[in-house]
Design brief:
26% of the residues lie in helices and 24% in strands. The protein is an alpha+beta fold. The protein has a domain of 62 residues: Cell Cycle, Chain A, CATH 3.30.1070.10. It has a three-stranded antiparallel β-sheet with strand order 1-3-2. A hairpin with a 2-residue loop joins strand 2 and strand 3. The two termini are 34 Å apart. This is Cell division topological specificity factor. InterPro entries: MinE, MinE_sf.
């Protein structure tokens, strides 16, 4: 740690955690063999919430799962908001 590091603004840990937990899964479509649309099963969100809640105390409303089409890609966007999340205690 240098002296100039003392004057840098500190990052918001909640937004850093949110950024780490946001991810996008993209699957390229095969134009020669078109697929059917991928539906997000309701069980997926339930299992994802159980996994996240194993490590963080967050409400069910803090998760957003959407599917969009971007050109030749299907994009699954999973966003989890962690406002002042505290690690879960076993």
């Amino acid at each position: 740690m240098g002296i100039f590091d003392l004057f840098k603004p500190k990052k918001d840990t909640a937004s850093e955690a949110k950024g780490r937990l946001q991810f996008i899964i993209a699957q390229q479509r095969d134009d020669r063999n078109p697929r059917h649309d991928i539906d997000i099963p309701p069980e997926f969100k339930v299992e994802l919430m159980a996994l996240i809640q194993k490590h963080f105390h967050i409400p069910d409303s803090a998760i957003s799962v959407t599917k969009e089409k971007h050109g030749e890609y299907d994009v699954l966007d999973i966003s989890i908001e962690l406002p002042d999340a505290k690690p879960a205690q076993d």
